[in-house]
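Q: Convert this sequence to structure tokens.
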Amino acid sequence: MPTYNVSGQEIHTVESGPPARQKAILIHGWSSSSYAMSPLVQMLGQRFHVISVDLPGYGASPRLNKPISIKAYADLMAEFAEQISDGAVIVVGHSMGGMIALNMAMSYPVLIERMVLIAPTITGRLSNTVNTMISPVTMMERFGLGQLLVSAVEGAYVGITDRLMRPVSFADRTVITEEEYGRLRADARRPGQGRVRAECFFAMRDNDLRGSVGRVQVPALVIWGAEDNTVPLRDAGVVADEWPQADLRILPKAGHWPHFEAPEITRRLVAAYLGLPQLSDVLDAPVGEETLITVREISQFLGNSSIGEDMNLLQRTRLSGQLRQYKYPPYRSVVDENNDTHEMFIIQSGSVEVWTNSHSPGEEENSQPRRVSSLKPGEMTGELSMIDDGIRTADLISGPEGATVLGLNRERMRALVEDDPELGSKLLWNIIQTMAQRVRFILWQLQRATSKQQMEQEMWEAERERQQRELASRIRQ
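A:
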């Protein structure tokens, strides 16, 4: 377990991902440890160097070397971010960790690129159930004799306290495993941390963010469980009222631990928001450095194409991870008209020729295929087949210099729209805009061809009339 020293304060961490990558700091909540963020560590390690901390007084980190307050934790995490990174970091915070992240964002916005907040404490007033059950115990834990008494009682009645706390922390239909639940409860009962828990409990109450959370300028995804009985949904209401810029998501069948209780949808939302490539259907699949370089190259290419219009870097990176890169030597089939893979293609380099067997009226059905057009980098094709499940109407063949194309299939398009509506809507709009430009160009060509045909017809008729007049004149003579 890596250990850091920040102004004399020892901080123990759990880490994932190559050290040279952008840093992502994960901050757990009250009565927890770095294990509380474990469902996200490996996935985030795909793109970032992930550092999940044990806050001072929790896990393996010694007690804070100053009076405990949310501001003190936020200042320490900001100093930690400066120490480990030469650029802005990603911050992911759960519960009290979310409150700490918000304080960092308000005091040190330049240090944070964006945040993910999971059931963050906003008002500091936990649910009525928690206040009724926990507050008296917490009051006792502030003092030495009371702490000994609480430890002794809890040791004798662990089963009772677990049964009382489970519905407070988790949804009725939670999918958390018994092993995970045991680890989380063990953190909450960790010996010697009673006084820290008590001081943090009151530190949250002293840090009510109502009236100030709207000042946060750092972009944030906020995830809440619909059955959260620890940090109540009324706190989510504060976010909705005062901080409309935040991307607020409420998850069904989840309580205070969405990343444990609804892990798939939570990780998909986090991956989408932070621009994780997701190069396979497995969210936690490792991503090598060469693959990330390819993703960055594609992202840069999209920034100069109509498909990536009005997308920020994270959105282009996210989209790049959904695209499959194919490389073809000269004059190879990219797809034939009977292919049903339901993929659209974006030309990244080289060219792709469009050939069709369709015949014009009056032509024989066995007429030779003809080239309709040649697609250049940045242009797309096949979007209709991807959208409407129709068959291909033309063959695609790489040009004389070969081609590199980017494919996007229907399943990944649907997942993108579901997980990240903002990115999905931009992508669909850009596809529509590109299609509209192409249709307008085709209509213009048809209009030009029609005008030319009409002109030729008029010239032919004028010439025929002239010849007829000449013939009539000769007859009269």
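Confidence is low (pLDDT under 50) at residues 153-161.
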